[in-house]
Amino acid sequence: xxxxxxxxxxxxxILAFVAGMAAAQALPEGRSLENAVxxxxxxxxxxFRPASCQIRAxxxxxxxxxxxxxxxxxxxxxLARHECSLVFAPYFSIxxxxxxxxxxxxxxxxxxxxxxxxxxxRPLEQWARNVxxxxxxxxxxxxxxxxxxxxxxxxxYAPGEEVMTIIMNPSTYVEPETNTAVPYGFRNxxxxxxxxxxxxxxxxxxxxILGAEDxxxxxxxxxLAAAAxxxxxxxxRGQWAYAQARxxxxxxxxxxxxxxTLVPATGHASAKMLASAELQDAVESAIRSASSR
Length: 293
Known about the structure:
By secondary structure, the protein is of the alpha/beta class. The chain has 9 helices and 8 strands. The protein has an 8-stranded mixed β-sheet with strand order 1-2-4-3-5-6-7-8, with helices on both faces.
């Protein structure tokens, strides 16, 4: 569990969400633009609802550093049609949610900072259920690049009710150990809670999907010491993070929930990643697993 300040922030976010929740109206078929109010923030959410099928899942899709959420929504439409799933792509603007809030999830929390953006995910999930009136279908989180970094912090520090978190081509990871400080590890997370949260993180259903050719080394991220320690490029970092997590799960004797898959002949292109068979397989696996419970 988070520390008292983070818990208080989360409680405030949820209360603000519940207080502002309106009666659900049917989402139109096809594309639409909705507005969610989370912690007093108005977030535009690009939505897609497939026609003539029974909804099987809710996909919440997090865009890369350009925050082009409508493009990510559009690029996910073929997958949504194939899996008969709703798509919600929230827009976290760069001006209101800079790197520390988006890529790092708003951690570590400082007295001057706003509510950590990672804490928005749980009420966003509830908002998506309310606005779509889909109370029981599984929720799957999908993030690419900067959006994947955001979801890494959600998975590590502020998970919701998602059945799977799909991480594609992030530049940094939350290391599964207590030697590295937040937001790249679990040091400085409350001592009494860090180990249980680390165990939960390792056992979470996290699908790491990497472009097999995402080996660019000229990104500004390469100048971050935390990124450099994790590998020379995104492909190396993803493989390193997965190996570290598997090793740590063995040491702590906890069930290991992560998987790793490479998308062949693909670099850092979000459209190709969102159209990949590997992503489709992960989503289908999550839906089938949830329906069998």
